[in-house]
C-alpha cells in the first residue's frame, strides 16, 4: 500500500487526501506503536495493581481513595479499549476496524478522559473541604454521597457525548485529516469538539486551580498560627513544664501536626497528578493548534505518546510520593488472593507489608482534628 493511499473496510468513507499519519516516517510510526504498547502494558498493570492494593488493605482507604479507584478504572479502560486501536493506527496508518468501532472507540476515548479529569477534580474538592471547611466534611462525604459523586463523573462524561454518538451534534466518524476516528462535523457542519473541550477540560481545570489556591492559602495561614503558638510556648517554658493542661495540649498539637503532614502528602500527590495530566495533554493541544499541517511530525508523535502516558503515570506518582501506597502495593503483591475475603469480614490480610500499612495508618488516624481553624 502506498503511503498516500488510505484504505478502509466496512463502508468507512475513503478519502484521497493524505492523512496526518501518512506524513510520518515509517520508522517514527513504528517507534510510536512500540512505545504505545509499552505504555499500555504499564497502564494495565499499574492501574489494576492500584485498585487491588486499595481493596486489599482497607485501613489505607479513605474518601480520596474511592475517587482514586474510579480514576484507575477509567485509565485501565483507556489502556484496554483505546490504546490497542492507537497501536493499530500507528502500525497500519489507517483504520481497518469497521464503522461500529469507528464510533465506539472515540466515544470511549473522550469519555475516559472526562472521567479522569473529573475524578481529579473530585479528589481536589475533597482535599479543599478537608482543609478549608473541615466542619462540613462528615456531612458531605457520607457513603451514598461519595457513590453519587463517582456515578455523576461517569454519567456526565459519557452522557454529554450522546448527542454526538447519535449524530445530532457532530458525529463520531473517520477523520481523513487525522487518519483515525474522531469527532467530525455532522451534515449541518456542527461539531461538539470545542464545547467538550471547554466543559470537560477547562471548567474542571479552573476548579482545580481555584481549590489549590485556596488550599495553599489555608495551609500557609495555619502554619503561621502554629509557629506563633510554638513561639509563645518557648517564651513561657515554666508554665509548660508545670501544667498538665499544657502538656496535653502539646501532645494534641503533635498529633494534629502528624495528621496534617499525612494529609498534606496526599494533597501534594493529587496536585502532582493534576500537573502530570496538564503536562500530558498540553503538548498535543499545542501541536494541533500551531502545526495544523504537520510540518514537524516528531512534535505530534511526542504529543500523542504523552497523551497516552497519562493513563499509566498515576500509579508511578503514587509509588514515588506516598509511602503508604508503596506498602499497599507490596501487600497486594505478597498477600494471597484468598485473603480478599477479609475485605468484608473485617479480618484484614496478615502479611507484614499490609500490617505495616495498618499500623502506620492507625498512627495518623486523627484526621478529625486536622487544621483547626
Unreliable stretches, pLDDT < 50, 5 or more residues? 1-11, 336-350, 361-373
The overall pLDDT average reads 77
- Largest sheet geometry: 2 strands, antiparallel
Question: How many structural domains?
Answer: 1
Helix content: over 70%
Pattern of helices and strands = HHHHHHHEEHHHHHHHH
- Count of DSSP H/I helices: 15
In terms of DSSP E residues, the strand content is under 5%
The CATH architecture is: Up-down Bundle
CATH topology type: Rhopdopsin 7-helix transmembrane proteins
Lateral strand order in the biggest sheet = 1-2
CATH H-level homologous superfamily name: Rhodopsin 7-helix transmembrane proteins
Name the CATH class. Mainly Alpha
End-to-end distance, in Å? 68 Å
Shape: elongated
Radius of gyration: 25 Å
Structural class: mainly alpha
The overall strand count is: 2
Q: Please, could you describe this protein's structure?
A:
- The protein has 373 residues and is an all-alpha fold.
- It has one domain: Up-down Bundle (Rhopdopsin 7-helix transmembrane proteins), CATH 1.20.1070.
- It is 71% helix and 3% strand.
- It is built from 15 helices and 2 strands.
- It has helices spanning 26-56, 63-81, 83-92, 98-132, 137-140, 143-159, 162-165, 193-235, 237-242, 244-290, 297-309, 313-321, 323-334, 342-345, 352-363; strands spanning 171-175, 180-184.
- It has a two-stranded antiparallel ribbon with strand order 1-2.
- Helix 4 packs parallel to helix 8 (193-235) and helix 13 runs antiparallel to helix 15 (352-363).
- The N and C termini lie far apart (68 Å).
